[in-house]
Amino acid sequence: MSSKSLSLRNISKRFGTVNALDNFNLEVGVGELVALLGPSGCGKTTALRVVAGLEQQDNGLVMVSGKDISDMPAHQRNMGMVFQAYSLFPNLTVEENVAFGLHMRKVNKHLRLKKARELLELVGLDSHNKRFTHQLSGGQQQRVALARALAFEPEILLLDEPLSALDAQVRVNLREEIRRLQLSLGTTTLFVTHDQEEAMAVSDRVGVMNHGVLEQIDSPDTLYNKPSSTFVASFVGTMNRIPTQISNGMVEIFGIKVVALKRGQESGNVYALVRPESIEVSRVAGAGHAKIITRSFMGASSLIICQTPDGSVIQALMPSHYSGDLHPGEEVNLHITLNEVLVSNV
Amino acid sequence: MAKAIRMKLLPPLALTLLLLGLFVFVPMLSAFEYSIRTPATGGYGWTHYHWAISEEDFFHYIFRSTWLSGVTVLITLLILVPTLVWIHLSDSKIRGIIDGLSLLPLVIPVVAFAVGAQISFPEFVQNTVLELPFLYFVLALPYAYRSLDIGLNSIPLKTLSEAARSAGANWLRTIISVIIPVIRGSVMATIALTFALSLGEYTLTVLLHWDTFPTWVTYVAQDNILGAIAISMMSLIIPFIILTAVTLVIPERNMQGRK
């Protein structure tokens, strides 16, 4: 594979009055898999389509390994793309679909079919090569689409919510397969998804987008544990918003004072942003009085939803073997396990 | 359950097909029966068919009408397929306007086209019979447009064309290698409708003082009505041969059940 790096510089794109991309910047290294994550309408698909050449940016540059391809037509960009809708050609067999890109590059029939079979073997569909696409399941069709996108050895692989139309189990299997293939082939990949679990599971780095802007791009671990903004903190994973007061850079949560991070104001009412796994529920005495509303068993861990006297609903995630004897309706105390928390004034 | 519904639908379906068959075939068979009558002997024979084949003009005009119809089909596909693909992909409000415009040939009198052609076509076009395919194209537009429109509406055009382009196909290859094969049924219907309409077009051709197969048949009918019917019967074979050839050129793939 002749993988290259990808660089988007100051990309802007408007659709009428909507600012889909606003001075958007992104760097993807050689062989790296970067996911763009964000709510609907945040501009992640537009960014991918600009890279593919299917959408023309109003301003900014698209560079592949330093070469400006901003005005290059889509068919000359040498980028493999997998779409949400399988987008296979119904008039072609599975192997003809996979060989399509090579056909367009005038590779002779023998070589392109040989390459197509190699790719089908990689995605575990070598025995289906003579079938038509309607004879395959959704997962199989998306594997063919992936093989088609990889067959002509693209410089960049673009994945536009490729798992969204699939069943839960197939999604998990296929996302692992995508990652395995991406790592083994070393293809630079940009992956757009609205599913944070998917993005976290397969990516080297995840970029969180909001209103056409990249809010934060980091490793999944950093993104989850050290979100740079309240939007990222709220969007990635579950986050409790606990009303409290900030004073001298400290906030009090369940009777314990902790350091406030990213504080926008020095005093007054704020929300402390705390992950469910950073809250413990117990019968041990404390100031965080609450009442258990529900307890959901999730295997190794249990989700306990409590209500505090001021009406706030708090979620706590605890190992199941510690929380087995806690029951709905029970009066308990909440404890925070952090020394510092992110706060927000909105 | 499904079988019971099918059995229930069978009698009305059979009756409809029977009526349709009668409507199409009875006049044709009657014309054929009439064309093989031999008034001199009171029996049947192939006299008029032998006469038609021996007429030098028969092959001349049938060949001329066939190639003019072929050119019309080419013009229709070359203009309409890219235009309709663009209209469907552009999500433009212009689609409603073009939909309406495509129906105009049904309400504008043919004589207006003829006069319009005399006024607007450059002289070098008017001096050649090649002016006819452009006008036949306009006459076939309402049918050809709708046939292709239905085909393009029935497929995920945007995704398929984007998939083709991202895989390295330019627009021309995308249309030829992906879109046309996927809407093969609509393309075939467009070819059939345009070809048949062009092959049988009479009024416009006469108004512009050109001679084609239909005008020649009318001329023959003035002296030999049975010969003219025999010629018409034989001309039915032409579209059949052409459409069979087109079917072989654009082979059908196993796409049943496609989503």
Short description:
With 346 residues, chain A is of the alpha+beta class. Chain A contains nine helices and 20 strands. Chain A has two domains: 227 residues, 3-Layer(aba) Sandwich (Rossmann fold), CATH 3.40.50.300; 107 residues, OB fold (Dihydrolipoamide Acetyltransferase, E2P) (Beta Barrel), CATH 2.40.50.100.
What this model shows, in words?
The complex is a heterodimer of chains A (346) and B (259). With 346 residues, chain A is of the alpha+beta class. Chain A folds into 2 domains: 6-232, P-loop containing nucleotide triphosphate hydrolases (Rossmann fold, 3-Layer(aba) Sandwich); 238-344, OB fold (Dihydrolipoamide Acetyltransferase, E2P) (Beta Barrel), CATH 2.40.50. Helices cover 26% and strands 36% of the residues of chain A. Chain A has helices spanning 44-52, 94-104, 109-122, 138-151, 168-185, 196-202, 220-225, 230-235, 320-323; strands spanning 6-15, 18-28, 33-37, 59-64, 67-68, 79-82, 156-160, 188-193, 205-210, 213-218, 240-247, 250-253, 256-261, 267-274, 279-282, 289-297, 301-307, 313-319, 331-336, 340-344. In chain A, strands 6-7-8-3-9-10 form a 6-stranded mixed beta sheet, sandwiched between helices. In chain A, helix 2 packs across helix 3 (109-122), helix 2 (94-104) runs parallel beside helix 4 (138-151) and helix 3 (109-122) crosses helix 4. The model of chain A has no long low-confidence stretch (mean pLDDT 90). In chain B, strands 1-2 form a two-stranded antiparallel ribbon. Chain B starts with a helix and ends in a 10-residue tail after the last helix. Chain B is mostly helical and 259 residues long. In chain B, helix 1 runs antiparallel to helix 14, helix 3 (56-90) packs across helix 8 and helix 13 (213-221) runs antiparallel to helix 14 (225-235). Chain B has one domain: MetI-like (MetI-like fold, Orthogonal Bundle), CATH 1.10.3720.10. In chain B, 27% of the residues are buried. Classes of the chains: A alpha+beta (346), B mainly alpha (259). Chains A and B meet through strand 6, helix 2 and helix 4 of A and helix 9 and helix 10 of B.
